[in-house]
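Could you please consider the sequence and fold appended to this message?
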Amino acid sequence: HVQLVESGGGSVQAGGSLRLSCAVSGFTSSRYCMGWFRQAPGKEREGVAAISPAGNTISTGSVRGRFTISQDNAKNTLYLQMNNLQPEDTAMYYCAAGGGYCSGGLVARQFVYWGQGTQVTVS
């Protein structure tokens, strides 16, 4: 049974930090392209960052230098460390898994499995 469960969201002031976690079950996350997406009200889902099975990472320009994606293979868990959060980072954040080596980039249709999301609010 495939399951991705996000946690770690919350409300913070601008300049603050949060670490999101995504606990994976039903498959080995390190064998997939694992990514984080976000969606703000009234906006399209946006790719934030992804990590390939080889450990290579990609991220969207607006979070580069502030957000770091990583994973703990022993715990089958994906993380997103978010520093210097800004109000424009407010969104529902989703964890996702896709096939391949992240060659398709941060494109939602490349990802097959999705979590239910965790809310991040920055004021």
